């Protein structure tokens, strides 16, 4: 059941610390400074990596590709429905990773089969043991999030993020102790976010907005896309995510005082400073700004509201920022009285192409 919650979605958002601990269990040896993924112990790969996925899982794939590139691995993410063997450079050196919660998404299965047909090694990153993807791929890595009932993917996205972060150690360079500790600490920080969030206030302030925009850079770019997807699918309102640097190339024409812009800005590096520059451009056009931030930079000075997260590295911060955006979408949808667990026109598992 819903365990006392009004919706499975809220239950599953709140389950994230537990889900993430399950995902990490037995996979990190901090003393040795190593990651051990038993599921894929016999995967030995050193070539390029391609991700194929749909929807929320595609956003996780974008995150995974970014993380792999940071580890020195050539990696790209493709929408499974756009992936065809004829047009992508795939051969026996390539590892093709299907990211799929259900393991039954038709577009993703088709892309994996095409990759297999071209001689690539295939890996399913999935929540579902013995799913079609797990059975058909050469390898399977389980994200161990537990069953997800709400149509909107929440805990499975966070678990995909951490599983892919672990995969990067397996395929890329060795982990440092600091990196491993940072990953180990993510579940606890998610708990802090759940206990301290002011998402309800933000939702009340902007429930009548015309549209919602989300921006971020680096690891926060897929989070901006995911924030918008969550918002549109459960509130039925217009929401879009952009790479922060793209605003001035078109989307800026959309912003007004009725379109809040959610900006994910953490740390105080060049990426953060550039996104703050984008925030100033938005503010100058009178759009309300909600900063999702750790308070390390001075982005709050340019924001109307702040959703605070603990100060951690940018990889972990993207998990935490996403939890805040899940909660905002949930609270807006709840105030609008939407059918949160079963949004109109959508299915949990999309088994047609
Ligand atoms: O089961 P999958 O991860 O392959 O599903 C792919 C998408 O249909 C899915 O992520 C969808 O976008 C989410 N349920 C939206 O919240």
TrEMBL record:
GO terms for biological process: carbohydrate metabolic process; fructose 6-phosphate metabolic process; protein N-linked glycosylation; UDP-N-acetylglucosamine metabolic process. It comes from the Archaea. Residues 39-177, 202-343 form the SIS domain. The active site is at 348 (for fru-6p isomerization activity). One of its GO terms (cellular component) is cytoplasm. It catalyses: D-fructose 6-phosphate + L-glutamine = D-glucosamine 6-phosphate + L-glutamate. It is found in: Cytoplasm. Keywords: Aminotransferase, Cytoplasm, Glutamine amidotransferase, Repeat, Transferase. GO terms for molecular function: carbohydrate derivative binding; glutamine-fructose-6-phosphate transaminase (isomerizing) activity. Its EC number is 2.6.1.16. Catalyzes the first step in hexosamine metabolism, converting fructose-6P into glucosamine-6P using glutamine as a nitrogen source. Homodimer. This is Glutamine--fructose-6-phosphate aminotransferase [isomerizing]. It comes from Natrinema salifodinae. The lineage of its organism: Archaea, Methanobacteriati, Methanobacteriota, Stenosarchaea group, Halobacteria. The gene is glmS.
């Amino acid at each position: 059941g819903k365990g006392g919650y009004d919706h499975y979605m809220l239950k599953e958002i709140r389950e994230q610390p537990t889900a993430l601990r399950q995902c990490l269990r037995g996979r990190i040896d901090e003393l040795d400074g190593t990651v051990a993924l038993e599921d894929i112990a016999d995967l030995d790969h050193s070539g390029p990596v391609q991700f194929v996925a749909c929807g929320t899982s595609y956003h996780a794939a974008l995150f995974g590709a970014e993380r792999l590139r940071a580890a020195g691995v050539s990696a790209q993410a493709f929408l499974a429905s756009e992936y065809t063997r004829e047009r992508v450079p795939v051969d026996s050196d390539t590892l093709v990773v299907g990211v799929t919660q259900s393991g039954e998404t038709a577009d993703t299965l088709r892309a994996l089969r095409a990759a297999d047909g071209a001689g690539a090694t295939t890996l399913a990153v999935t929540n579902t043991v013995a799913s079609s993807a797990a059975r058909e791929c050469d390898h399977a890595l389980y994200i161990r999030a537990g069953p997800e009932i709400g149509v909107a993917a929440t805990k499975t996205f966070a678990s995909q993020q951490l599983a892919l972060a672990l995969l990067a150690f397996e395929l890329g360079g060795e982990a440092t102790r600091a990196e491993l500790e940072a990953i180990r600490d993510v579940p606890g920080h998610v708990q802090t976010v759940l206990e301290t969030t002011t998402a309800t206030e933000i939702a009340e302030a902007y429930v009548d907005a015309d549209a919602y925009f989300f921006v971020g850079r680096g690891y926060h770019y897929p989070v901006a896309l995911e924030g918008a997807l969550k918002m549109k699918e459960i509130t039925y309102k217009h929401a879009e995510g952009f790479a922060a640097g793209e605003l001035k190339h078109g989307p800026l024409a959309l912003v007004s005082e009725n379109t809040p812009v959610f900006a994910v800005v953490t740390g105080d590096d060049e990426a953060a400073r550039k996104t703050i520059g984008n925030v100033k451009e938005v503010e100058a056009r009178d759009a309300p700004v909600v900063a999702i931030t750790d308070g390390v930079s001075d982005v709050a000075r340019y924001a109307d509201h702040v959703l605070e997260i603990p100060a951690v590295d940018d990889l972990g911060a993207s998990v935490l920022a996403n939890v805040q955006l899940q909660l905002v979408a949930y609270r807006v949808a709840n105030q609008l009285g939407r059918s949160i667990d079963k949004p109109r026109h959508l299915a949990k598992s999309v088994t047609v192409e």
